[in-house]
Design goal:
The protein has helices at 4-16, 19-25, 30-44, 60-88, 104-117, 133-138, 203-209, 225-233, 243-251, 275-278, 281-297, and strands spanning 49-50, 57-58, 92-98, 121-127, 144-147, 156-163, 166-171, 181-182, 191-194, 218-221, 238-242, 255-260, 268-274. The radius of gyration is 22 Å and the shape is globular. It is 43% helix and 21% strand. It contains 11 helices and 13 strands. The protein has 3 domains: 4-84, Orthogonal Bundle (Arc Repressor Mutant, subunit A), CATH 1.10.10; 90-163 and 267-297, Periplasmic binding protein-like II (D-Maltodextrin-Binding Protein, domain 2, 3-Layer(aba) Sandwich), CATH 3.40.190; 166-260, D-Maltodextrin-Binding Protein, domain 2, CATH 3.40.190. Helix 5 packs across helix 11 (281-297). The protein is α/β, with parallel strands linked by helices. InterPro entries: LysR_HTH_N, LysR_subst-bd, MetR_PBP2, WH-like_DNA-bd_sf, WH_DNA-bd_sf. It is found in: Cytoplasm.
Length: 304
């Protein structure tokens, strides 16, 4: 009989792509994981993945069981959530703020699903550049902040949602689009378009330009991602965007993107919450929904 642990193992294998990393995620030894897989293959009387393939590839039988794993584990998760509601109640407040303005793309669908599952939770959110959300979080004015710039504040914990690449967006006809990747000095003669926040909060400065002592020729700000993209597309500057944001505009043929450095720069997006909020079931559920939605739907992001 196929068991829940088998299905979790198959999903871990797909998400990590290797036996070693899957074993670490499941808190098993590699030997125990291999034994479990052999046991499952013996039960279904066929191989489920191709040995020694990198990244790991599933057989057709393995792909069928992956579909089963997605369906069954989703139902198990739903049941567990419903039980938590019965045990802990549904009342509560979740006020959110967003430092990553591109996050509206995935935050709104997540909120729509969340409202249906937790209708009694009072939801509200704000975004903008006129206040500091992390101090407001520490003071209890808001309850959750989406940020890629964690700061050490007493009583605040940062839950990783996903990793992403910061890419440099260029006009398709830009001379730098001929390069495989960009170096800091490539931006020395460029107008850099960015959000109107302090540069010590922007990865393009803190992790790319400033360490190399490079200053762009000019800095132009915009609060709207779409406006930044339009300015870039028309050749009036370059900007740094998360890969999952840039992917939409690249697919439309509006812009080109290049990595910042040969290895690229890979920040992590976090949900910041107060210590006493982290264990609340409805907060845990929002974090799980947000992470699951992003890993499934955003192009190029990585599980953390």
């Amino acid at each position: 009989m196929i068991e829940i642990r088998h299905l979790k193992t198959l999903l871990a294998l797909r998400e990590t792509g290797s036996l070693v990393e899957a074993a670490e995620r499941l808190f098993l030894t590699q030997s125990a994981l291999s034994h479990q897989l052999k046991e499952l293959e013996a039960r279904v009387e066929c191989e489920l993945f191709i040995r020694k393939s990198r990244p790991l590839r599933f057989t057709e039988a393995g792909k069928r069981l992956l579909l089963l794993a997605e369906e069954v584990l989703a139902k198990v998760s739903d049941a567990e959530r419903d039980v938590k509601k019965l045990v802990h109640g549904e009342a509560g407040r979740l006020y959110m703020a967003i430092e990553c303005h591109s996050c509206f793309n995935w935050l709104m669908p997540t909120i729509d699903v969340y409202r249906n599952q937790w209708p009694a939770i009072e939801l509200d959110f704000s975004g903008g550049f006129t206040f500091e959300p992390l101090p407001a979080l520490a003071q209890g004015e808001i309850d959750l902040v989406i940020t890629s710039d964690p700061q050490e504040i007493r009583g605040i914990q940062y839950v990783p949602l996903f990793g992403y690449e910061m890419q440099i967006a260029l006009a398709n006809h830009h001379p730098l689009a001929q390069k495989d990747f960009l170096l800091p000095q490539d931006l020395a003669e460029q107008t850099l378009i960015c959000y109107p926040v302090n540069r010590n909060r922007l990865d393009v400065f803190t992790r790319f330009l400033t360490p190399a002592a490079i200053e762009p020729a000019a800095v132009r700000t915009s609060e709207l991602t779409l406006m930044m993209v339009q300015l870039v597309a028309s050749g009036r500057g370059v900007c740094a965007l998360p890969n999952w944001v840039a992917a939409e505009y690249v697919a439309q043929g509006l812009i080109s993107v290049r990595s910042a450095g040969k290895a690229g720069i890979w920040p992590t997006l976090y949900a910041a919450v107060r210590d006493e909020y982290l264990a609340l079931p409805y907060v845990q559920e929002f974090l799980a929904l947000a992470k699951g939605h992003c890993l499934k739907n955003l192009s190029g992001v990585q599980a953390i």
